[in-house]
Specification:
The model has no long low-confidence stretch (mean pLDDT 93). The protein has six helices and eight strands; from the N terminus they run H-E-E-H-H-E-H-E-E-E-H-E-H-E. It is α/β, with parallel strands linked by helices. It has one domain: Rossmann fold, CATH 3.40.50.2020.
């Protein structure tokens, strides 16, 4: 399996997901650009690209997860794309989602899908800004007995999130960065 050129993902993100203007981010910070990665991660072309690039990145780091997932909803298409790609390049990874809040009914779990206590997992993010979403996902996964191998993001905004996660002991890999997308000067 030869992964596609990462520049193809950059082009797709710039065409579909990058907006310029004045934005307030989920972190509360303001920015002159916004990356709505879902417009790429939920597109047919984006799913294929991210699946191939993400799986290659995981394998290059010798991470051996049983499952992959993160905080819904940004992480969901990323996890599903990588899991689907693994069918053609075993070992197969299954996907899961982390709820922002536990359900008030049923099992009351925050981690849903193909996840069991003791599983080694990779946490995924569509965009890392402060690292807050990844940290919430990690907390829920650890509470349910998961072992985090690392964090994979589609885009690193390069605004301190990666450093925060790495300082907490979690290795991070990003498929692209704000600098590579020409958003940082």
């Amino acid at each position: 399996m030869t992964p596609p050129d990462p520049a193809v993902l950059d082009r797709l993100l710039l065409e579909r997901s990058v907006k310029r203007g004045h934005f307030v981010l989920a972190s509360g910070r303001t920015s002159s650009f916004y990356v709505d990665a879902r417009l790429t991660t939920m597109s047919a072309e984006g799913l294929v690209l991210i699946g191939r690039l993400g799986l290659a990145a995981i394998r290059e780091r010798s991470w051996a997860p049983r499952a992959i997932g993160g905080l819904t909803m940004g992480a969901d298409p990323v996890a599903y794309a990588i899991a689907a790609q693994s069918v053609g390049a075993p070992p197969i990874l299954d996907a899961f989602s982390v709820r922002k809040e536990p359900k008030a009914h049923g099992t009351g779990r925050r981690v849903e899908g193909n996840f069991a206590s003791g599983d080694p997992v990779v946490v995924v993010e569509d965009v890392i800004t402060t690292g807050g979403s990844a940290l919430k996902a990690i907390e829920a996964i650890r509470e349910e007995g998961g072992t985090i191998l690392g964090i994979l993001a589609v885009v690193d905004r390069e605004e301190g999130g990666r450093a925060t996660l790495e300082a907490a002991g979690w290795p991070v890999v990003a498929l692209t960065t704000a600098t590579r997308l020409g958003l940082k000067h």
